[in-house]
Every structure is written in structure tokens, then in C-alpha cells.
Amino acid sequence: MKESGLFDFLSRIADIFLNYPFSTQLIRVGLIVILGLPFIKITAKISGNYAKKNYSLQTQMILKKIIYFGGFFILMLTVLNEFGFKISAILGAAGIFGIAIGFASQTSFANIISGLFLISEKPFLVGDIVQINNTMGIVLSIDFLSIKLRTFDNRFVRIPNETVIKSESINISKFPIRRLDLDIGVAYKEDIRSVIQILKEIASENPYCLDEPEPVIYFFGFGDSALQIKFCLWFEKTELLKLRNSILIDIKERFDKENIEIPFPHVTVYSGEETKAFPLTVKSEKR
Amino acid sequence: MVERNRFKLVKDVVHLFRYGFMEVLIYKNRRELFIKSKTAENYYNSQTDLNLQTQFTLDEITELPDLLDDWEREIIKEETAFVDFVPILPDRPIVLKSKTELSISPDTEAEFIINLPIAFDIFVNDKKSSAISSATLTNTWFGDTANGQLCYGKKSSFKLFDHSKIQDYMMAYNFNCPVIVKNNSNQTFKFVRLCLPTEYLSIFELKGFYWTSKAVFLVDGDNQSTQIEFSDGMYENKSLDVVKVHEAKSYDHKKNYKHFFANLLSR
Fold it and tell me: How far apart (Å, rounded) are the C-alpha atoms in residues B151 and A157?
């Protein structure tokens, strides 16, 4: 069966070049292509516009691609049919060929299957901000083989779907609000209740910090050189940078104003032999 | 559009518009407009001052500003320009927060008078150009962290509305918003926060003061589900001087908000 199909395919090619009135066929095929291509493009566009009103951006892209590539496939079969090829034989041959290709390209198939899972499971959508392994960026497209991201430093990253399925992916923009957690250390001499009160005031005065859910401020431990405070602020998901930048400046300025010390590790430098201290000479002026 | 706050702009003149402690500077040359709005914090000293000015006033300053760098700039089609100040409500629902939890007994109705900060859209030749607000509202979240909505937040004392003391509520720089909470359930209803969808409130003007239409929250049933109704008119006032300044968006009960109240447990 498969041998006859392949033989038929090759004999048809020979037949076209030897016997058929090639020019009339070319005209017909030309007409099919000239009319077919715009038809596919217009259909894809109309479907895209329809999907724009009713479905997500991701569904729009998938629908457009299915129509686009499906249309091209049908057009190609029509053209081959015009040249006298038997479609069933071609499809049979393509099936055999496909299996052979499939064995040779298992990774691609794994990616396609993973892509189908990604599309159906919807862990993220086009336009979401995601982190996959160490790459963070905005999802540009979710295709059958890979997802494409644009990182914040404007690099284009392609991640195979299989990698996405196997890795932990974090959708940063899934929910409308997020929480920023800051670790703040103050000197042991400071009044911790007063510091917590000041942090509450800082949060309430910051325009990017939501007043509800209320900021979470708690004293969580005695560090090596500081009393450690967790300062958790809720914000609208798009305001991360503005909040982070402004709140750190607010904390520093307010702590300076209130004379609250932010301790930092001190380093003692030794010079010369391993156990001997840095040589110091004390000079005193005689009046 | 109510033309009460309409002014003609003069070429090469800086116009200073004042509404209490709100100030708007507009400078116009041939077809360019420069707008700067600010809040003059020290303009008023007492509650009395707040009650005085209930419309925009205009001063003309002939000295041209040296620096227009931080002014909003707009190029307009016409050489003649009119400016209008149209009162607007906050563009997002406003969450009113009480200091303490409020309880309403079963089968009881409470009518509150809520003060909402006033803001004005600035229209130039009937096209929206800028806006000015009497207060900066904080951002807040109402609902759970996955499905709630972004709102403005405001602390409120939830004063009971005393119809015999209408004059006390005649304060400029605020919208007076009557809010009724009817507890039709057989349990005491407790809340600490109330989400007021401002887009469904109409604005009325009465003797220079602004009021909104009435919002009625009906707490019903054992699970204390809430329905909301908005009145078409102002509170029960038959005065002929009432002018509707802004028509509210019609309320669709099918797209109802799920929750309007939060108590201490659900906040």
C-alpha cells in the first residue's frame, strides 16, 4: 500500500512534466493561490476580530494560527490535487513519513504535547509576567513548541514548552494585588514598639501602599547585629517598582529623622602576620 | 453641562481659579494652554472658611510665568477658549471605614450622611482637559486578595443623618451622600467597612452645595446578603433650586457586586 502510494506520487510528478498541458494547469493553480491566500488571511483576521471581543488574547492567537496553518494545508492539498495527485495517497504517505519524522523528533512532539497542556491548563496567559527558572518576563506568545518572553531588559527569550511543564513557573501577575516583604534591622538600643509604630505611619503615608489589606509588621527575631522586623506591604501589581523605591527611601529618611540606627556589619582589618593586629600609633598633641 | 462655573480665557493672561484651597492656574497664548493645579494648604484656617466659598472665583495675573516646564500643555483648535469646572465623584468605588465596628439591630434602618471629597473635571471648550481634587484618597482593596477590587479608601465617622440640621451639612469641598442601611434580617448586622459604588450616584447642586443621590443597602435573610438601590433624586428635598449636575450610570442588578460590607472577621 505504502509502496504503491509512493510510486503513484513519483509517477504523477513525471506525468505532469511529460504529458499534461502545463500552462493551463499553472493558470488554474495560480488562480487558486491568488484567491486562496487572501481568503485565508481575511478569514484569520475576521476570526481574530471576533475572538478579540469574546475570548482572551491567547485564544485569539491560537484561533488565528489554527485558521492560518489549517488554511495553508488545505490550499497545498488543493494545489497538489490540481496537479493530479491523489490526496489519500499523499496523506497515507504523509502518515508514514510523519511516523518516521516523529521518531526522529521526539523532543518536538514532547513540546507540542506540553504546549497543549499549557494551553488547556492556563497557568499563565499572554501578557502575564512570569518567572520560569531564572528568567522573568512578559509572555509574548504561547505556541505549540515554545513560549516566548520579553524580559525587562528587553531580551527575547524562547523557552521550550517541555521545559516550562517540567519547571516551577511563577505567575507574578495572576492576582490583582501583591505583597512586598522587606526585612528591616534596627539597633538593639531602639524601642521596638516605637519602630513598629513609625513603620505603620510610613506605610499609611505612602501612596502606592494599600491601606487594606493592612500592612503586616512583626518583630521576628534577634539577629547577629540587629533586631529583625518583617515589614509586609500590599500593593497593586503594577506598582512594585514605585512602591519598593519609595518605601525604602521613606524608611531611610524617617529613621534618620527619628535617630533610629540601621546597623550594618563591621569588619576588622588585620595587617601583617596572621595573629598580629593592624599596627596603630596613638599620637597626642601637647599643649 | 451646567454653565455656573464657566469662564472665558483671555490671551496672554494667567488665570488663577480658586475653589477654597484648590487652585488652578491656566495660561493661554494663541492656541496653547498651560494648566497647573495645586492645593493651597494654608488657604483656609477654620471650618467657617470651608463654608464660605461655594463656587470658583477668578483672578487674572498679567505677569507671564517664567517657567512652564511642569505645567500640563495642550494645543487647542480654537483661539477662543472657555473653561468649565464640572464636579465629579471618585472614579472607583469608595470604601468607607469606621473606627469601630458598627452594629445595626434586627429590623432597623440607619441613615448616615457621608462626606465624599469633591473633585472637578476641567473642560476646555467642552472637552475634558484636566482634573483637580480637594483631597488625595488612599488606595485600598475590597474583597479577597484574589477576586476583590481596587477602591479608594476613606475613614468615616458614619454620622446619622438628622434632617432637621441640614444647614450643618452645607459644607463646600464635600459631596453629601445619604446612605441608608436597612437591616431586614433577624440578626444584628455588624460591619466596619462599606463599599460605596460611586458610579451609580447622581450629583445635585443646591444653593452652591453638592449632594449625591441616596444609596440604600438592604441587608436581608439569614446569610445577611445585601442588595443595593439608588434613588433617582436627591434626599427628600422639594426645593426648586436643586439642579442635577451629573446623571449616574444606571445600575444593573444582574451585575451586582457580591459584597458591600466587611466586618472585623472578613476585613
Answer: 36
Burial of residue A134 (number of CB atoms within 10 Å: 0-12, 13-18, 19+): exposed
**B136 at interface of A, judged by CB pairs closer than 8 A:** yes
Integer Cα distance of B84 and A130 in angstroms:
45
State the 10-residue block means of pLDDT for chain B, 267 residues long. 70 81 82 81 48 63 68 84 88 90 90 88 86 84 86 88 78 82 87 88 84 87 69 68 77 64 60
Q: What is the pTM of this model?
A: 0.71
Tell me how close the Cα of B165 comes to any Cα of chain A, in angstroms: 33
Q: What is the pLDDT of residues A120-138, one digit of tens each?
A: 778 888 888 999 988 999 9
The ipTM estimated for the assembled molecules is 0.75
Across-strand partners of A280? none
Q: Which residues does A contribute to its contact with B (CB < 8 Å)? A: 175-177, 204, 207-213, 234, 236
Q: How many Å apart are CA A236 and CA B144, to the nearest integer?
A: 13
The b-or-e profile of B15-35 (16+ CB within 10 A means b, else e) is bebbbbbbbbbbbbeeeebbb
- Chain B residues lying within 8 Å of A211, measured CB to CB: 97, 138-140, 153
Q: Which of B133, B138, B263 to mutate to test the interface with A (most CBs of A within 10 A)?
A: B138
* Other Cβ atoms within 10 Å of A271 Cβ, number: 8
What are the residue ranges of helices labelled H in chain A?
A: 2-18, 22-54, 57-82, 87-104, 106-121, 161-166, 192-205, 240-257
Distance (Å) from the alpha carbon of A115 to chain B's nearest alpha carbon: 26
Non-local (6+) Cβ contacts of A274 within 8 A are none
Q: How far is B232 from chain A (nearest CA, A)?
A: 32
In this predicted structure, the answer to whether residue A66 has a pLDDT above a threshold of 70 is yes
Can you say how many angstroms the Cα of residue A172 is from the centroid of all Cα atoms in its chain? 10
Which DSSP state fits A271? -
CA distance B31 to B77: 7
How many whole angstroms separate alpha carbon A31 and alpha carbon B60? 72
